[in-house]
Amino acid sequence: xxxxxxxxxxxxxxxxxxxxxxxxxxxxxxxxxxxxxxxxxxxxxxxxxxxxxxxxxxxxxxxxxxxxxxxxxxxxxxxxxxxxxxxxxxxxxxxxxxxxxxxxxxxxxxxxxxxxxxxxxxxxxxxxxxxxxxxxxxxxxxxxxxxxxxxxxxxxxxxxxxxxxxxxxxxxxxxxxxxxxxxxxxxxxxxxxxxxxxxxxxxxxxxxxxxxxxxxxxxxxxxxxxxxxxxxxxxxxxxxxxxxxxxxxxxxxxxxxxxxxxxxxxxxxxxxxxx
Length: 275
Prior knowledge:
- The structure is a single chain.
- By secondary structure, the chain is of the alpha/beta class.
- It has a single domain (7-273), classed as TIM Barrel.
- Helix content is 39%, strand content 14%.
- It has helices at residues 19-29, 53-63, 86-105, 124-142, 165-175, 186-191, 196-202, 230-239, 259-270, and strands at residues 7-9, 33-38, 45-46, 49-50, 66-72, 110-113, 148-151, 180-185, 209-211, 246-247.
- Strands 5-2-1-10-9-8-7-6 form an eight-stranded parallel β-sheet.
- Strand 1, helix 1 (19-29) and strand 2 form a beta-alpha-beta unit.
């Protein structure tokens, strides 16, 4: 069983909705917690800082939802963790640092990160070094703020750096930072041919966060629209006493026309497993 506050809403599929409308829809659907996707039009976070912070605080407070994790957009924006070139490295560093500071300001304990990606005309080792340097710097900056960075693997078409459980573990072991911990994205996990059991076993249950979605295995789909075994997944979470968030990271374009219906579909799929 899972607690009622574990299913966590996210906002990528609300790309054409305001922050306030999104939060209202998700609260009405029954979500008690959320992962804040920091991208326009919901959050204007850049390398220069965050805009309209009072409005952001007010909207989250009015929703009544608990903020479980904060995710600075990093797959479609220019800033990324393995950025190359003096200017882009400096801007990326400031962008993610402002995201960490925003998490602290919002009393959010986690910030989601990944390895970023290297360029096609350079060695993987060059890009990996930049990624390690960036995540070491960010984790050290986050620690005195009480923020933990949670690192997910990505799919092979998203990165040439950290794509698997083994690569995630090697990366985290290399940096060995107490506030840089593993998280699971069930899409990237399944694409790599891995299972929840593999991840929880490898990290001795020390999984800090989940992007918990259906898939085929590709796709960040609503539960019921893929072929993942939800009951079996919930059983693994119970076996390892996982009490963290289960973020519904819905990204497929089919849900953009009616994102509220997608949220309702997910919460209803999860409801039979709620204590």
